[in-house]
Design a protein that fits this description.
- This protein is an alpha/beta fold.
- It has a domain at 8-216: Alpha-Beta Barrel (TIM Barrel), CATH 3.20.20.
- The protein is 47% helix and 12% strand.
- It is globular and about 50 Å long.
- Helix 8 (197-202) links the parallel strand 7 and strand 8.
Length: 305
């Protein structure tokens, strides 16, 4: 069993970074990784929803992870999401991630067909077996995957010694409490929904993995600091402002991740491209909203950090 303290804290979900032609850019990937590590985050979650994993080819996902590892290996915790919608390619990504030296791999369940629990367990155990020396984290996001992690399935998966916990992105905070209790000792549970960062931590999450963290890491790091000190009353206004910012990021024609990448361009000088089709990119009428969101993030950081 690895040292689970390396998973405790703020772990941004990493964005796919593209060049001007829409191809995955290793150079821009490295710039984003360096930017986030220098901000002081605990780790990076690479290749998940924020990394547009469902829409990328296996080779593009490998290139992204390789670039991240080349830049920051050993400086922070790296969790690689490796799920594809077939077992073979998921296992290939898992083996590739282990070869690169990641701390953990993660996986959603197979999507589209509603498979029984025993088939989902087999899928996850097959992936885990392809990376036999690497921790495994279940990614529970039923609102997108169409399948929820049940407590009986989680208990079954915990029989695999490599399964160390759950990235829980279901909306009910109570789910975190259930997974913490069912996981027992030597288990980590991450808060997924960014809008409930402090609530998830209060009910037992050891840290958080989130898709908006990288747009405003300072705010999540400050909340993490206050939560660890038991100062939930001081953390609450930051959470309220973060939630307003998230609403602004979701209020454009372009997908939220297209908005965030433009915000990072405005606020940090990081040019990461747009998003992969079929996700919608920004249009000209989005720009006033994007600029307002970027300014709101700057004001929030100046106020709270």
């Amino acid at each position: 069993m690895s040292n689970l303290q390396k998973y405790h804290g703020v772990i941004p979900a990493f964005y796919a970074c593209y060049d001007e032609d829409g191809h995955v850019s290793a150079a821009r990937t490295r710039l984003l990784a360096r930017h986030l590590v220098d901000k002081g985050v605990k780790g990076l979650y690479v290749g998940g929803s924020s990394g547009e994993c469902i829409y990328l080819e296996k080779e593009e996902r490998m290139l992204t992870l390789e670039a991240v590892m080349q830049e920051v290996k050993g400086e922070c915790t790296i969790i690689a999401h490796v799920a594809c919608n077939n077992t073979q390619e998921s296992c290939q990504l898992a083996a590739h991630a282990e070869k690169l030296g990641v701390d953990a791999i993660a996986s959603i369940p197979p999507i589209y067909f509603r498979l029984p629990d025993y088939a989902i367990a087999q899928y996850w155990n097959d992936i885990s077996a392809a990376a036999p020396d690497t921790d495994f984290i279940i990614y529970n996001i039923p609102q997108l995957a169409g399948v929820a992690l049940s407590l009986p399935l989680f208990r079954e998966m915990r029989k695999n010694p490599r399964v160390i916990g759950v990235k829980n992105s279901s909306m009910p905070t109570q789910d975190i409490e259930g997974f913490v209790a069912a996981g027992g000792e030597n288990c980590v549970v991450f808060n997924g929904p960014d809008e409930q960062f402090i609530a998830g931590r209060a009910i037992g999450a050891c840290g958080g993995i989130g898709g908006t963290y990288a747009a405003m890491p300072e705010l999540f790091l400050k909340m993490d600091e206050l939560v660890k000190a038991g100062r939930f009353t001081d953390a609450r206004p930051i959470q309220h402002e973060v939630n307003g910012i998230i609403a602004d990021l979701c209020a454009c024609h372009g997908h939220m991740y297209a908005v965030i990448k433009k915000v990072l361009s405005i606020n940090e000088g990081l040019h990461l491209g747009g998003v992969h089709k079929p996700m919608p990119n920004l249009i000209d009428s989005d720009m006033p909203k994007v600029e307002a969101a970027a300014a709101r993030i700057r004001r929030a950081i100046a106020t709270f950090c």
